[in-house]
Amino acid sequence: MMTPGPIKLLFIVNHRSGTNNTDWHSIIRQYFSNSPHTADIFELPENCNTEQVKQKIHASQAQRVIAVGGDGTVKMVAEVVAGTDLPLGIIPGGSANGMAKELGIPLDINAALGVATEGLVTKIDTIRVNGELCIHLSDIGFNAFVVKTFESMKRRSMWSYIKAAWRVLWRNRKMQVKIETDNAYVNRQAQMIVLANASRYGTGAVINPEGKLNDGLFEIVVIKKISPGEIFKMFLSHKPYDPVKTELFKTRSVSVRSRHKTHFQVDGEYLGKINDLEATIEPHALSIIVPVENN
After folding, report:
1. Is the pTM for the entire model greater than 0.85?
2. Using CA atoms, how far apart are residues 63 and 39, in angstroms rounded to an integer?
3. Is 3.30.413.10 the CATH number for 8-118?
4. How many Å apart are CA 167 and CA 192, to the nearest integer?
């Protein structure tokens, strides 16, 4: 619920996110110039770590903490506030903004500032993946390889992501994996395996039609074959997957073993190549600010 009376917000700004040169300081200061609420701004320094963010949040005594940037910025701030009652808000400033889109937070800056200030607080699940906090989507295989390729490109845009995906499509090989969930044990060949707390990527592709952020479960999406038909379903029709090409498992935990090392990413952050993956759900671990109309 909304905190009664004037509130103090801390905006944690990553000016390196996205592709534009938005003057976040001026926009935020202008928005709150005639507001009963107050805003403090912390610009992430180069090579910032979560301990620096934690110290700033503690010193600010803010009642709401707002991540300004892309999914990587949101993940960094979430790592600090997860497990507390301190609400996290999002101002989308990255190249994809997957979590903001999942929550229905508008791309218009003033509208997003309105949500951060007046929105409702709700609890969502998180996933702990190989020790990393995941609030959105984690995967191994094809998309993680795309993220690695995308990170090496000079320009960060949706077109750059498409070009990275095209390059990887012809180089990505299938994984030989063993998957153990709460109630299933299977061997599969797959081009990509997604651990999905949410339902869609920042590109708009619906990877997990059954995804809910607060149901105490997450989904394992096993993409055995990347095909034009399945891609069409993800982006446009949202019809059920072809089980020959894509499988979905619901679970509270999972172990994945890959015969060969494969690319791995969490919430848009590339984390190298791995053989083994362990993940468990953390129910209602994160307080997050959402638009009023979403509740």
Report:
1. yes
2. 10
3. no
4. 16
Concatenating the DSSP letter of every residue in the chain gives -PPSS--EEEEEE-TTSSSS---HHHHHHHHTTT-SSEEEEEEPPTT--HHHHHHHHHHHT-SEEEEEESHHHHHHHHHHHTTSS--EEEEE-SSS-HHHHHHT--SSHHHHHHHHHHPEEEEEEEEEETTEEESSEEEEEHHHHHHHHHHTSSS-SHHHHHHHHHHHHTT---EEEEEEESS-EEEEEESEEEEESSSB-TTS-BS-TT--TTSS-EEEEEES---HHHHHIIIII-PPP-TTTEEEEEESEEEEEEEEEEEEEETTEEEEEEEEEEEEEEEEEEEEEE-GGG-
Give start-end residues of each CATH 3.40.50.10330 domain in the chain.
Answer: 8-118
| Residue that is written with structure tokens 């891609």 in the block | 231
pLDDT of residue 243: 76
What's the topology of domain 132-282? Tumour Suppressor Smad4 (2.60.200)
Triad 240, 202, 101: Cα angle to 5°: 90
Which of 114, 262, 244 minimizes the C-alpha distance to 188? 244
Q: Which segments of the chain belong to CATH 2.60.200.40?
A: 132-282
pLDDT band at 90 (very low <50, low <70, confident <90, very high): very high
Q: Which of 84-88, 141-145, 155-159 has the lowest mean pLDDT?
A: 155-159
Beta strands 269-290 and 120-129 are antiparallel
